[in-house]
Amino acid sequence: MEDRNELGCWLTLKMHEQHFMISVDHVVELTKTTGHPIAELPGSPPAIVGTMRLRDKLIPLIDLRIVLGLPSMREETKEVIELLDSRRTDHINWLNELESSVREQRAFTLTTDPHACKFGVWYDALMGDEAKLNAFTNGNLALRAVLEEFADPHAQIHQLAVEVTGLVGEGRAPDALAHIVETRETVLGSMVRLFDRAKQITAELRQPLVVVVESDGVRAGLLIDEVDAIRRLGAEAFDPVPGELEHSEYVTAVCTRDENRPLHVVLSVSSLIERLAGALRRSDREALHAEAA
Fold it and tell me: What is the domain extent for residue 106?
């Protein structure tokens, strides 16, 4: 296996709830994308997302998720924010429909069960599964706290329909409308702020880390989700690549011998750089040309 010696050091990485390892022999440094604008390069392969200036040097960036056939963090984040936006709009429209049903003297047909609406189904599944919740929040306590705050106002919003129906049944439609207006300004307003806060934290939180690596004089930054640890392992810790493992051109072994840890896939930085070397050098030249222009 490439880079493996009697006792090697390995940087363990995490992406999309999967675990990987690369040899520290190729690692130059770790940094964040925060504070380092990424310049996109039109025409580059999808895995090369652009360049980043680091201490007066342009570093081409490789989205390791895309290389390995995983959804990019950018796309995942976009989907989460779109989901939150959609569920926010659902509840605004739900309350508008409740008001219209009272004004037009017709039955309200949307769900009054907070566990049955689209948000409720998603929310219950997320909050009821600790592993899913930790993955969604990336362990961030602020986002977790925001999610927990949804429970009460969400239940109150749906309870409103029951209360409004009762008021209408008693011939108190004006009181029902007043109750809706008050709830829109208070409870719904609280939910809208929670949705907006959840989107903000999600966008801030889901920023990839950069592992700057070098092989044969070519330097690049690997975009990953998070770094786990540095481990010292001997040859006995590794097994051959399973035949069914995808993207085997970048995979040299798997580490399965530690029963207290999940399976880690060992990635070859040399193979990765060699495979993308032409595109990396071209992206570097194009970035320099763009800066000069």
Answer: 75-205
